[in-house]
Amino acid sequence: VARDAQEARAVVARWLVSRDIDSERDGQRWMIMLHGEHKRTVGVTVSIGDHTLIVQSFFMRAPDDDAAAVYALLLRRNLRSYTLRFALHPDGDVLLVGVVPLEAVTDVELDRVLGQLLAVADETFNEALRVGFAGYITREQAWRSAAGLPRNPIT
């Protein structure tokens, strides 16, 4: 259990090595890449502050279509999440963000939070894309059909 930022950094560093996860460290932050099924690559920043560990991941760019329906979907998904929440970046992109007090930073908690981040991203990604980019997907499917290509699996 971490009691301060220095101990939390040590827990994160050991956890990354023990899980054989490649990372780049920049001071108080690590950039890591997780691999999912639907959202194939999930970039995550793990940051240590004075009182909290923050995980943040880009989920999707700002939706082109029906933004209100996308945001409603993500807000409903927030209700079933342990510590992660969907959030909007000022430019409209959608992020997944989780905050953990330093006192709770352990190997088990890192497994739980980053495992949940991967699960939430994977479970929600295709539906959010189908709603938020319906026009693009329709145009792509028409092009694929005309080109004799199979349907995009996201549909």
Description:
Helix content is 42%, strand content 26%. It is an alpha+beta fold. A six-stranded antiparallel beta sheet has the order 1-2-3-4-6-5. The radius of gyration is 18 Å and the shape is elongated. The model has no long low-confidence stretch (mean pLDDT 93).
- Protein structure class: alpha+beta
Q: Which sheet architecture does the biggest sheet show?
A: 6 strands, antiparallel
Level of helix content? Answer: 40-55%
How many alpha or pi helices?
4
Instruction: Average the pLDDT over all residues and give the rounded result.
Output: 93
Strands ordered across the widest β-sheet: 1-2-3-4-6-5
Write down the secondary-structure element order.
HEEEEHEEHH
User: What is the total tally of β strands?
Assistant: 6
Q: What's the N-to-C terminus distance? A: 44 Å
Using the alpha-carbon principal axes, give the shape.
Answer: elongated
Task: Please indicate the percent range of residues in DSSP E strands (runs of 2 or more).
Answer: 25-35%
State Rg: 18 Å
What quaternary form is this? single chain
**Low-confidence spans: pLDDT under 50, at least 5 residues?**
none
